[in-house]
Design goal:
Helix 1 (180-196) crosses helix 2. Strands 11-10-9-8-7-6-5-12 form an eight-stranded antiparallel β-sheet, covered by helices on one side. A four-stranded mixed β-sheet has the order 4-18-17-14, with no helix packed on it. A four-stranded mixed β-sheet has the order 20-27-26-23, with no helix packed on it. Helices cover 5% and strands 44% of the residues. It is built from seven helices and 113 strands. Mean pLDDT is 77; it is low at 59-99, 111-116, 144-257, 577-589, 626-638 and 653-659.
Length: 1481
């Protein structure tokens, strides 16, 4: 408190002058708080962009230059106060050097400038100066900057001193009058303040008024003259304001330091502090300075205006209320949103433009002009220029402006990207894909790759080989009309066949160029069009058959004979073998055909002429005469004469040769025959072209002893080979048989003399002792040999046959009397000049082995165990021979019954032994045949035979052997006791008891689940049941053994897999789950607890699903798969504090086992009832979209102690959604609206209000706010609504074909949806029915006919019952699917009459039946059949093309003059439809 004092001098006087009294009176003025703070304005308006960042001061200068806008970044307002005349050097020229600088102040200002698209920073320096020039005081403000304007004058104030009496006259702007007193105040105010404090007015913001009318309140001024504050402030603020704005025009009125309140009191009573009456979420207020700061993000779409109530309270407690209105200005922060994620459209190719493709719409939550949308196509996979956008009723309608060609669109799909751009700056955009499906039309005929194909193929091509692929191209790209629909047909001979789909031409039989060398085919390709829309392409195929060397030369007129005299000189002719060549004139080929053709009449000899008939006789005689060529014949035959053209023509023998001919029907080199001698023959040579055979000069010796040479001299093997590549030989070579004529040029030769012959003694008289062999290689008489014995022998004991050479005994020979005989023999031939030879024969008489070995006994029976060791003596044999010497020496052999070599016999002693181990299981007995042979002469040895029967006795030496290495089987775990599971089987090769097999389970059956039959090996289920959950498989070891329990045993592994059955119940981990203290404010979807149950079964039997059985009061639900219990409704502790729920767990396979558990949940209530509200609860209702700031309700509470003021607030657990929409006055308890209320986001709100008196107990109440609906939402179609359906055309009327689902987020009548068909329902074919105001079911209302209309584009409209109603459209495409309701139609329904010539070749086209079917797909694909009248199979019909052709057996008019054929045309529908017709031919 500042105390003002007044001093008065009082005096009192009497009449006497000296009677004067003085007194000083001091009057002190004490301040009282008699002034409230006063706001300069009752309402302050500020506009902020919603994008203003948090922490930004609300008070900013926003100036606009005439050329470029400047945004103030900051001001450094520490003025420099220096009396420094030297600083005037760089000051403007208006300040002279003689001026006296009183004071100067600098301000540094940083500004950001925009000019066009270019941005740059400007540093401004504001210079304020007070200059004294003589009698003038000039206050100047100048500014200059880097990157910005040059130094320009901003403000000049001139005060001119005239005289103290008359005052001063000054100029401020235009005209301003200041009194002398004002001037003094101003002078001292500027001077003292600048020097002592130099404080500024603070940050300045432009307002709506002009720059010169702003006011400024300066605070914290120290030691300035009393009364100078106001005038100083006016001038100083004017200087600063003008410096800030310069010559620019102000866009807004400057607001300094927020809403400022003034208080005329002084001291603490004049100190003002600032408060918000209701603490806002978005703003903060500095209690000392009054600065309002943004502390949270603004959102224009949620709140467009804030009205803040500010309390200004001075030190004495006086208050004043002011309001600050903050207008939120929209920025473009929401991008456009399309109604769908993607759009589809469809078009027919060649459809006349313009045509609508799709209707698209996007929305933008910003305000105009930011939400004004423009659409553009930014991408098209093809033909972007063909598409345009037309706006219709807010929709962007995509149009196609020119007809499209399906063949130029890959896959028939065009992909567009549509962009929606809003009107903001910068603009935001969104894109959506649009798929345009183009449907094909049959507008292109098939075209073959060549109009005519020329093919050359070898004649050896196998049947079924590929000749050619004819390829037709159809520019139509769809499967229905394009390449995939093409069907090929063939017109031509039956040797070729055409694949109707691939175009492959193949052979049907072997080709032979020698029969036919060229073929011409006609091929057709038809596409999938129907009737007149079907298109055809035609091409021809010319096939030339190339010759291959497939015919070997063939010999004619075999056999071939020739006579040659042995020892003939070189080049003697033998025979000619040649192929006729028309170009060769030096010889003539004589054949039987040649004789017949030339009409040969005679063969002439000098002494006679031979006239033979028939030709065969003449030919036979000629061959005989020519081939023999003996001297007498050669001399006789002179010439051959024929009658040709009534003239007789003759050839001499020198001009003739007999032809040994090979023919080859091939062409060219393949038919040219080359001759050769193969194998090579050194005695003869042949001309490879003419076939003439001559002697080579080698000696021809008919009597040659070399058999190979003899063979080569007598036979000549001729091979005929053509000149093809590869060359072919004739199927069999021919042989020329050469008869060598003999000369007597060889002596008789003894073949087996001299020789020593051994003759056994005792031969009877007349026995043949020896045969003398003699040979004379000459022929006939030259080779006839006679033998004889010379006289002079001591006794004549032998006789010789002179012709056969056999020597006979004439007496009984006795070796002891004559041991040897020496005979001399003579041989001579019968030639004209006989030739002779002599030799000797020695005969030796030998001893005879005439005794036979004899066994005793002849049969032996022996038994041995199969386990005897090797070399075991089986039996000892007894045998003797009465001969002496070597003839009596015996050798033993096993000659039978020992094939496997199990036994041996002593070579000399006859002891039979085992060689290897015996095995009864391999062979149980042996029959050995043993021979004893004496050592008599070879060929005359005597043999004795004995038989040994050996029986092998069994021992147990074989293990049982299982038939399988292991056994596996699978059974279900529920099989009853005694069920057969698996049979194991083993065999034992032993005999009797040793071979009897027994079975037992060794291991793996500890639980007794299985038993096994001892004898059969059958495994059955045992006493204990199977349990897959305990063991899913069992590994058993089964043993097979013999009854002697010996070591002969074996085992096998048996695996039994147990399949699961649903025999286990789910088991919960706990019987009761507890969740204590669940907050009653827990939201929907809050996780409460997890229950878990396990089922040991597998598959569906082990899959557990959970279900709430009882006790949830529809507040909780359990997840069917996870067991998670969550809230599905809001909880209220006041209504119910705990829940005891029953939950089941069920497996997923019959018999669906179930288990149950309980879940106990208690709710937590944290509210204190000590402070009591007047009402336990408050209920009110609001209409959605109500204005912010509207009072909702006022709550009141009472405190029992009533000592402190109650404060109200929302409970922290109150729903955040409610807190964002409502606020409560902490003093009055009034609840007001702070946000945009949308019933569709929440139709009710529960606010828990807490009343606090500062004590430990608090009171609370619940305010229930019901939001009343307004019709502000259009119906929305669910994603499950049908977009496109396929409906068979035979669908009966009244059948449902499609369904849409629509919802309206509004309530009551506003949310009831009705459906109508707004467009596209031509002829009212469909009707729509609204079900439960949610579903729209589309039914067939009239018969459908795909052949008339195959697609309907319906616009389904969903309209609510609001007032006014709102609606949304939905596009539904109904594709009419073809059914087989059209039978094939023949172009000539009355039949056909055609004529055909008999004996035409196979494959001749008779007629093509043409039929059409209005159906499509398989229903429209036709097949043609001859169903009657073709019993003899004279005709064949192409099933695909309908063409009737003749078969290889041609029609014969004499057999049948007329055919009445019934042709049936049938489609491939199900069931198929057909049509039959008759035609005559």
């Amino acid at each position: 408190m500042q105390r003002n004092r007044w001093t008065y001098m009082l005096y009192a006087n009497e009449s006497l002058s000296e009677h004067v009294g003085f007194a000083r009176v001091f009057i002190d003025l004490i301040n009282e708080n008699d002034n409230r703070p006063i706001f300069s304005q009752s309402l302050y308006n500020i506009s902020l962009l919603e994008s203003t960042p948090s922490g930004t001061s609300l008070l900013q200068i926003q100036c606009k230059s005439s050329s470029s806008p400047f945004k103030l970044v900051n001001i450094h307002d520490g003025p420099t106060n220096r009396i420094a005349p030297n600083l005037l050097r760089d000051k403007p020229c208006s300040i002279s050097s003689t001026a006296e600088l009183v004071v100067e102040t600098f301000y540094s200002v940083q500004a950001k400038a925009h000019k066009g698209s270019h941005a740059f920073m400007i540093d401004w320096f504001l210079w304020l100066a007070a200059i004294k020039k003589a009698q003038l005081l000039e206050i100047v403000a100048w500014g200059n900057g880097k990157g910005g304007p040059t130094t320009v004058p901003i403000l000049t104030e001139v005060f001119q001193s005239q005289s103290p009496e008359s005052g001063y006259r000054g100029f401020h702007g235009q005209q301003a009058q200041l009194s002398y007193k004002m001037l003094c105040v101003l002078w001292y105010s500027i001077l003292w303040y600048s020097i002592l404090s130099a404080a500024s007015c603070g940050t300045v913001s432009c307002g709506t008024a002009s720059c010169g009318t702003a006011s400024c309140r300066q605070r914290h001024v120290v030691q300035r003259p009393v009364g100078s504050v106001l005038w100083y402030s006016v001038l100083w603020y004017s200087v600063l304001w003008a410096a800030s704005c310069g010559t620019a025009s102000c866009g807004q009125r400057p607001v300094v330091q927020g809403p400022v309140a003034t208080d005329n009191d002084i001291g603490t009573f004049g100190v003002v502090r600032y408060f918000f009456s209701d603490e806002p979420d978005q703003f903060s207020l500095d209690a000392n300075t009054g600065w309002v700061t943004l502390k949270d993000r603004l959102d224009y779409e949620l709140m467009r205006r804030y009205t803040l109530t500010i309390l200004a309270r001075d030190g004495g407690g006086e208050e004043t209320t002011g309001r600050l209105r903050v207008n939120v200005m929209d920025v473009n922060d929401n991008q456009p949103v399309f109604q769908k994620d993607a759009y589809m459209g469809s078009l027919m190719e060649n459809e006349q433009a313009p045509q609508q493709v799709a209707r698209v719409r996007a929305t933008d939550e910003d305000s105009p002009p930011n939400n004004i949308l423009t659409y553009s196509i930014i991408y098209a996979s093809q033909f972007q220029s063909y598409f345009s956008i037309t706006m219709v009723e807010g929709y962007a309608v995509i149009m196609v402006n020119r007809p499209l060609d399906y063949e130029q669109v890959p896959g028939g799909m065009i992909y567009l990207t549509l962009m929606a751009r809003d009107g903001g700056n910068p603009a935001l955009n969104s894109t959506v894909p649009i798929t345009v499906e183009l449907f094909d039309q049959n507008d292109n005929p098939p075209e073959f790759s060549q109009p005519s194909y020329i093919v050359r193929i070898p004649e050896n091509m196998v049947a079924g080989a590929t000749v050619l692929f004819v390829t037709a191209t159809d520019l139509d790209a769809s499967r229905e009309f394009g390449q995939a629909s093409l069907i090929y047909s063939l017109q031509g001979p039956s040797e070729f066949r055409l694949n109707t789909r691939s175009g492959e031409i193949t052979t049907t039989a072997l080709l032979d160029r020698e029969v036919k060398s060229e073929y011409i085919l006609i091929v057709r390709a038809v596409d999938g069009g129907v009737g007149p829309l079907q298109k055809t392409g035609i091409a021809t195929v010319n096939i030339t058959i190339l010759d291959i060397n497939d015919n070997a030369p063939i010999w004619q007129d075999e056999p071939y004979l020739a006579n040659v005299v042995e020892m003939s000189p070189i080049n003697t002719d033998v025979i000619s073998v040649f192929q006729h060549d028309n170009d060769t004139k030096h010889t003539t080929r004589i054949t039987k055909e040649w004789l017949r053709k030339k009409h040969v009449k005679v063969l002439k000899w000098p002494s006679q002429s031979l006239d033979l008939n028939p030709i065969e006789d003449l030919w036979r005689e000629l061959k005989l005469r020519v081939s023999q060529r003996q001297p007498r014949n050669l001399a006789d035959l002179r010439e051959i004469c024929v009658e040709e053209w009534a003239k007789m023509r003759c050839w001499s023998l020198s001009q003739l040769s007999v032809d040994v001919l090979a023919l080859d029907p091939d062409n060219g080199e393949n038919g040219t025959v080359m001759y050769s001698i193969s194998p090579a023959n050194p005695f003869y040579i042949i001309n490879n072209r003419t076939g003439k055979i001559r002697t080579s000069g080698a000696i021809l010796d008919r009597e040659s002893l070399d058999p190979r040479a003899t063979q080569l001299m007598r036979t000549i093997i001729i091979s005929a080979t053509d000149r093809g590549n590869p060359p072919l030989r004739s199927s069999a070579s021919t042989t020329v048989y050469v008869n060598l004529l003999d000369l007597n040029d060889n002596d008789p030769t003894f073949l087996n003399l001299p020789f020593v012959a051994e003759v056994p003694e005792g031969l009877p008289i007349g026995s043949s002792v020896f045969r003398v062999q003699v040979q004379d290689p000459d022929e006939a008489e030259n080779g006839a040999v006679t033998l004889g014995l010379q006289v002079g022998m001591p006794r004549l004991d032998f006789r010789l046959n002179t012709s056969t050479g056999v020597l006979f005994s004439t007496a009984v020979l006795d070796r002891e009397q004559i041991g040897q005989y020496y005979l001399r023999l003579v041989a001579f031939d019968a030639g004209q000049y006989p030739r002779t030879s002599t030799s000797t024969l020695t005969i030796t008489v030998l001893d005879v082995n005439d005794e036979t070995p004899t066994f005793f006994p002849r049969v032996y029976n022996v038994s041995v165990l199969e386990s005897v060791p090797r070399d075991f003596v089986v039996v000892r044999l007894n045998c003797s021979d009465n001969d002496a010497g070597l003839n009596a020496e015996l050798s033993y052999f096993i000659t039978g019954g020992n094939q496997d070599g199990k036994f041996s016999v002593g070579f000399r002693n006859g002891v039979v032994r085992t060689v290897v181990d015996l095995d009864r299981e391999t062979q149980a007995s042996y029959t050995l045949v043993i021979e004893a042979i004496d050592n008599g002469p070879a060929g005359d040895r005597k043999t004795g035979t004995a038989t040994v029967y050996v029986e092998v006795l069994d021992v147990n030496d074989n293990r049982p052997i299982f038939l399988q290495n292991s056994y596996e089987t699978t059974i279900v775990e529920s099989v009853p006791r005694g069920t057969s599971i698996l049979q194991v089987q083993a065999t034992d090769a032993d005999q009797g008891e040793n071979g009897r097999v027994l079975y037992r389970i060794l291991s793996g059956n500890s639980g007794g689940q299985f038993t096994i039959d001892l004898l059969s090996g059958l495994i059955i289920r045992g006493q204990r049941a199977l349990d897959r959950e305990t063991s899913s498989s069992h590994l058993l070891e089964v043993e097979a053994y013999n009854s002697d329990q010996g070591s002969m045993r074996s085992s096998v592994r048996v695996i039994v897999y147990v399949e699961d059955v649903n025999d286990e119940r789910p088991v919960f981990t706990q019987q009761q789950y507890n969740r204590l203290g669940l907050r009653e404010t827990a939201g929907i979807g809050t996780s409460v607890i997890v229950v878990r149950a396990a089922d040991p079964d597998t598959g569906d039997g082990g899959a557990v699903s959970y279900a709430m059985v009882a006790g949830s009061d529809r507040k909780f639900e359990v997840d069917i798969s996870t067991g998670l219990v969550t809230t599905v409704d809001y909880l209220d502790y006041e209504t119910k504090t705990s829940y005891l729920m029953n939950i089941s767990a069920t497996d997923q396979a019959p018999p669906f086992n179930r288990a149950f558990c309980t879940v106990y949940v208690t709710l937590l209530n944290e509210l204190d009832e000590a402070v009591a509200f007047l009402m336990a609860g408050y209920e009110t209702s609001l209409r959605e979209n109500i204005a912010t700031g509207t009072e909702v309700i006022q709550v009141r509470a009472q405190s029992a102690d009533n000592l402190n003021q109650l404060t109200y607030r929302f409970d922290p657990d109150t729903s955040p959604a409610a807190l964002a929409l409502f606020k409560i006055d902490s003093v009055t308890g009034r609840i007001t609206v702070t946000g945009l209320i949308d019933r569709e986001k929440g139709d009710s709100y529960t606010l828990t209000v807490v009343a606090d008196d500062g004590g430990p107990k608090r009171g609370s109440t619940v305010v229930s706010i019901t939001i009343l609906d307004e019709n502000d939402n259009s119906p929305e179609f669910d994603l499950t609504s049908d977009l496109s359906v396929n409906v068979p055309e035979d669908t009966p009327m009244g059948r449902r074909v499609a369904m849409v689902l629509g919802r309206d987020r509004d309530a009551g009548n506003n949310g009831l949806v009705n459906f109508t068909l707004a467009a596209g329902n031509m002829q009212d074919v469909f009707e729509i029915r609204t079900i439960n105001n949610t579903y729209g079911e589309i039914f067939v209302n009239a018969p459908l006919d795909r052949e008339a209309i195959d697609r309907y584009l319906l616009k389904v409209r969903a309209t609510d019952n609001g007032s006014p109603p709102r609606f949304t459209d939905h596009s539904l495409t109904v594709n009419i699917v073809d059914v087989n309701d059209n039978a094939p139609v023949v172009q000539s329904p009355r039949g056909y009459n055609v004529s055909i010539s008999e004996n035409v070749g196979g494959g001749t086209s008779v007629l093509r039946v043409v039929a059409t079917d209005r159906d499509i797909g398989p229903n429209g694909m036709l097949s043609y059949y001859i169903t009657n009248g073709n019993q003899d199979l004279t005709f064949r019909m192409d099933r695909m093309t309908g063409e009737i052709v003749t078969r290889p057996s041609p029609p014969d008019r004499e057999r049948q003059q007329q055919y009445t054929l019934t042709v049936t045309v049938e489609d491939e529908g199900n069931p198929p439809l057909s049509n039959a017709l008759l035609f005559l031919e």
